[in-house]
Design a protein that fits this description.
Number of strands: 5
Mean pLDDT: 86
Largest sheet: 5 strands, parallel
Number of domains: 2
Helix content: 40-55%
Strand content: 5-15%
CATH architecture of the largest domain: 3-Layer(aba) Sandwich
Number of helices: 10
Order of helices and strands: EHEHEHEHEHHHHHH
């Protein structure tokens, strides 16, 4: 298995050092870059060859926030997989990072075993969805392989669900009752084998069901 080169961008130096030590204990993983803000990492990326395979990005940073930095890296270094790190778990923050180009969203209190699983899956598959990892046995046979197995209304709902709209706002946009919107949500949770709006958004992106 090839070595996975990893960079960390976080304004808390103690957290960076602790996370680096943890990742260096994972087989075939190596920390190749550390930075306390996005601007510093951008300067390091300009001089690095080869580039990191994965960048772990703090959501809230000074100088440039996580989403701004992620969007820059996605545009200028498309070969790097971007992973958001945060203490926040609200839909708005998660979806903002996904739209900026992140392929996974990890909480900072993540268990070391799950962090290792996430890094290895991102390296091999290009994404990590904790919902699917935890609940992949749920209705696997009903997961859609493409857009053909979802109705136009379900696809429209998915697109809205991947935005920062609330479910109430989505209901207004689609001219439907909130109960009907809840039905779309529950149906797609089942079809995609997920348990949350964030998991649904990640699966929609992975399956190319939406274009962010």
């Amino acid at each position: 298995m090839k070595m996975i080169n990893i960079g960390i961008v976080d304004d808390h130096q103690l957290f960076v050092k602790s996370l680096s030590l943890l990742i260096d204990t994972i087989d075939n993983c190596k920390i190749v870059a550390e930075a306390l803000n996005g601007r510093d990492m951008i300067e390091k990326l300009k001089r690095m060859n080869p580039q990191p395979d994965i960048l772990l990005i703090d959501v809230n940073m000074p100088i440039s926030d996580g989403a701004e930095f992620a969007a820059y890296v996605r545009e200028h270094y498309p070969g790097i997989s971007l992973v958001a790190l945060s203490m926040k778990n609200d839909d708005h923050t998660v979806l903002k990072m996904l739209r900026a180009g992140c392929c996974a969203y990890l909480l900072k209190d993540i268990h070391p075993n799950e962090l290792e699983r996430a890094i290895l899956q991102i390296s091999s598959k290009g994404y990590y969805n904790a919902d699917v990892s935890n609940f992949r046995r749920l209705l696997v046979q009903s997961r859609p392989e493409g857009k053909g197995q979802l109705s136009d209304r379900e696809l429209l709902f998915l697109r809205f669900a991947c935005s920062d709209r609330t479910y109430k706002q989505i209901a207004a946009e689609m001219h439907l009752s909130e109960r009907t919107i809840d039905g779309y949500r529950d149906s797609l949770f089942q079809k995609l084998g997920v348990q949350s709006r964030v998991g649904m958004a990640l699966e929609a992106i992975r399956l190319n069901l939406v274009d962010l």
